[in-house]
Amino acid sequence: MKLDEPMIIVNFKTYLESTGKKAIELAKHAEKVSKETGVQIIVAPQFVDLAKIAESVDIPVFAQHLDPIKPGNSTGHILAEAIKEAGAVGTIINHSERQLHLSDIQASIALAREKGLISCVCANNPATSTAVAALKPDITSIEPPELIGTGIPVSKAKPEIITNTVTLVHQINKKMPILCGAGISQAEDVAIALKLGTLGVLVASGIVKAKNPYSILRAFADATQ
User: Fold this and answer.
1) pTM, to two decimals
2) Is 17 helix (H, G, I), strand (E, B) or coil?
3) Is 142 helix (H, G, I), strand (E, B) or coil?
4) Is 29 among the residues known to form the active site?
5) How far is Cα 84 from Cα 113, in angstroms, rounded to an integer?
6) Contact present, 111 and 85 (Cβ < 8 Å)
7) pLDDT tens profile 77-122
8) Alpha-carbon distance 144 to 91, whole Å?
9) Is 17 designated active site?
10) Element (H or E) spanning 122, and its range?
11) Can you tell me the distance from the alpha carbon of 188 to that of 110, in angstroms, rounded to the nearest whole number?
12) Second label for 31, Cα 20 to 30 Å away, from 10, 37, 166, 208?
């Protein structure tokens, strides 16, 4: 996986359309589009589907979350070693639906780095993105929570959030890949996001719940080129 080229991360969340057999189908659509276009497409399935999807497709697979824990007595938590062994190459951290304290974000980033996992850390505003960037994750993603799942893209509704984030984060690390998410549902949204300075998008329902996920993914991929 290359961190200096456009990318699309598809977060499967816990939709029925991206669970079990349907999760594998969706991952295969992503793989097909990636191979056709050469665009990096990463899938982030539910934990119970992680291993079988990693075995089924030849594209990067991320976990949806990582807990800053060591092996032992942490029932119900997500272990970095388990993510790695399941075949994932990275993980989302601090999604708005699974937020962590800043100290736990720092510990999760460090743990991911220690285990050779790529960290994509989400933040809800430019100030938080700046704080996150100082912790040196591999990728930062800006996602205003009020737009998530609305179909109203951040790249159109609040472009200043993206441009401010890009400016502030790049003052800390000029090479930091920045993604944006929330409401991304059309190819135009992706194209605008890249023009605003991001390297791609983190998307969920716009792909997962689409009637034809392959065609939407293909349009997204084409919009990055």
Assistant:
1) 0.95
2) helix
3) strand
4) no
5) 11
6) no
7) 999 999 999 999 999 999 988 999 999 999 999 999 999 999 999 9
8) 20
9) no
10) strand 118-123
11) 35
12) 166
